[in-house]
Each structure stands twice: as C-alpha cells, then as structure tokens.
TrEMBL record:
Family membership: Belongs to the zinc-containing alcohol dehydrogenase family. Quinone oxidoreductase subfamily.
Protein name, entry field: Zinc-type alcohol dehydrogenase-like protein
Keywords for the protein's UniProt record, in alphabetical order: Metal-binding, Oxidoreductase, Zinc
GO molecular function: oxidoreductase activity; zinc ion binding
Organism expressing this protein natively: Oceaniferula spumae
Record-annotated Enoyl reductase (ER) domain positions: 14-332
InterPro entries per record: ADH-like_C, ADH-like_N, ADH_Zn_typ-1, ER, GroES-like_sf, Lipid_raft_assoc_Zn_ADH, NAD(P)-bd_dom_sf, Quin_OxRdtase/zeta-crystal_CS
The UniProt record lists the keyword Oxidoreductase: yes
Taxonomy, superkingdom: Bacteria
Amino acid sequence: MKAIQFIQDSNEAGSAQLNEVPTPVASGHDILVKVEAVGLNPVDYKVRPELGDDPKTLGYDAAGTVVSCGDQTSLFNEGDLVYYAGDVTRPGSNAEYQLVDERIVAKAPTSLAATTSAALPLTALTAWESLFDRLKIIPEIPAAQEGKSLLIIGGAGGVGSMAIQLAKLSGLTVIATASRQESADWCRKLGADHIINHHDDMPAQLKELGFDHVDYIANFNDIDSSWDAMGEMIAPQGSIVLITEHSKHLDMGGPFKRKSVSICWEFMFTRSMFTTDDILEQHNILTRVAELIDEGKLTATANDNLSPINVENILEGHRRLETGKSIGKLTVSGW
C-alpha cells in the first residue's frame, strides 16, 4: 500500500516521502480501514522534531471503510463507514490502509461525506474530554450549568470550534477569544455569546462585558502568554483545562492557590496510549457526536479541503497549520 511518511524535521519537500509499505493485517481488537479522507491537526507538525531517520506515517484523524476485523472485535462489520483519531504511538492515517483499535472508533455521521467526517474526531474528543471529563461539566443538561460561564482561549481553532458548540448544548455562557474579524465571526456562528481578543487585556475585556470572573477556562491556545491573565480571570474554586505545551516555568501559586483553583491537563491520546480501562469511552463519545451531528445539534467544522492525498497536499496542510491562523479544520481526501 502507499503511505506518506516523514523523516527528521524539515520544511523541505524531501522530509516527506511517498513509500510502498506492507498492508497490515487485522488481529485482536484491531480493524483495518481503507482511508478515504484525513483531517490535519497541529500534532501532525509538532511531532516532526521528534522523528529520526526511520520513516514514520503521521496523521491522527481519518474516515474510511472497514475492510477486515480482528478476532476480538465486535463493534463493526466489513463495509461500515467509520471515523476516528487513532493512536499517536502507532502508524498514522496518511496511508491507504490503517490498523486501529475498534474501541476508539465509531460509525461516521450518516449525514456527512467522509471528507467532512474526517475533520471531527480528534477535535471532538479533545473538546468533549476537556469539558466533561476534566472540568466535570455535565454534558447536555443546561439546568446543571445555569448561570455558569466558560472562557475558551482559542475559540476559532479546531478544538475551540467543537467546544463552543458542546458548551452551549450544556447551558454555559460562552466567551471565546479571537483576534481577527473572520475568526470572531466564525465563533459567533458556532454559538459563542461574547468575543474578546486574546492579544489584548483579557481581564479588562471581561469586565467590560460585565464578568468579574469566569467559572471555567479552557485554554486551547498559548499557555505562557495567558497564564497570569487566567489567574486573574478564574473564579474562586474555578477550574482550568490546558492542552498545549508551555515553554517557561508556570507558577502554580499566587491567585491559583488563593482561589483553590483546579488545574488539569487534557491529552486525547491518553486512553489509547495506555490502553486505559475506559478506552471504550472514546467509541462512546464519537458515537454520541455522530448522533448530535445527524440530529443537527452540532455543526461539522471542516472549513477547507485539499485533494488528493499526496505529499504536496500534506506538506501544504502542515504549512497552513503552522501559521497559527487556521479557522476550523483542514482535510485532505482521495487517493
């Protein structure tokens, strides 16, 4: 089968190769999927500095058709259209076929083409786990969050785009950050109640909106530049979830200690990386997301597509993501 693989870390075209590799065989909990479309994410280019000289297949979002099932599978049949985010420790989705544990896979939304479905898994899982597993917000029960507010730092990105919608379904007042008019418009379209600019004084902007503080903060952007502001904006006994790396020392004392703030990390690959006892929960989450999409309660966040799946388009996708100005999700489809 064909696979797009990377070596070392370079923006040179030679860092990506189109290689012929053996088609894997499904066994155990794995299913073999014929990949029809892939979604691109910042993790795709962020892992490149860690690569050596051995070619590695990247890609952590896909939609495709099940072609065979391992002997311990029970969730899918050959011919099912599925979507998933995969496992960062295994070969990725930038290949004609991919092995993936069925417990982190779900049937794709019936109302969407594979190209659109491929944009959803990683960001939907990250947003869902951030809000409901880490911040302990009660999903889809507005009364449980009555009067509660959530600040999403990085509202127009892939994760933020899903989190805005999930938070609104759960009854929260949502303040999203966006620094450009087009990204602010995108956040409003998805349901954000208020917009502030993360490049300006965020606490002051919150106060202008009438908020002395917020109950929850989901930071899907830069931690370093917003750390002090988060300490000022979070409510006493509030909760913060983080998903990105930091490059400087973070002072966990100060306002965070005085306010008894809960700070937690979200890493979508934890369940698959460690084969946790609740690994099946990712199948359940993606199944519910597909239902919400088909019911018209969630909007897919695919905003651009490149075709076909080849070295040039994968590299172009990485370049666009590295600008930090992407809105929604970018997909690449078709072999």
